[in-house]
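User: I'm writing a tutorial on reading structure tokens. Could you give me a worked example: one chain, its sequence, then its tokens, then a sentence or two explaining what the tokens reveal?
Assistant: Sure. Here is the example chain.
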Amino acid sequence: MLTEKLLEFANIGAEWVLWLLVGLSALSVYLLLDRILLYARTRERIGVLEPALIGALERCDARRAAEAVARDTFVSNVLRPGVELIEKGQTDPGAVEQAMLGAMARERARYEAKLTPLATIGNNAPFIGLFGTVLGIIQAFHEMGKLGADQAGGANAMIMSAIGEALVATGVGILVAIPAVAAFNWAKSSIASRVRNAEALMRAVISGVGRFTCTEPAAKG
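And here are its predicted structure tokens:
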């Protein structure tokens, strides 16, 4: 009984699987464009940020340091809470570091959002395509079984054509997976690069804790 029910389901064919893969492909394109827009809008300018921030730290200028991290980028958003604490007179390196680590956790969650569906599509699209191929082959053999012995020649031609069509699902699955995996790896690499830059500049900020008081009157002016 169960086998018959499964056979009825298999005889639906693989066309719905192809439409599913088309939908997944559209979803992966949307996710990729969303991440590209975010990363482009918040692109880092480390070559400008690093000398400006370090220069402000060396001059004990909290106001200039705060201005250096005013942009909406991963690194600036991580450093800003620490710089703001120093600007308010915080002299505990541990408190400053914890503020920046908390900001880093929030930024990582922001930048890694929507990457899980992208990875899921990349990992599973080939299997969905293979499933469609299996359904197509089952349907082809089932239809061949209904033909009589005198129609064997036509059956062979039909099954070869049906199997060829079924294999399209596997090809589409792979075609959907490759860009999704490439996009996921690119996004993770971009995030890792920003994290490294943030960690490097976090050390510079922590090293400046307690030094801003030397020019506090000048900073206010």
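What the tokens reveal: The chain has one domain: 2-220. The CA atoms of residues 111 and 170 lie 32 Å apart.
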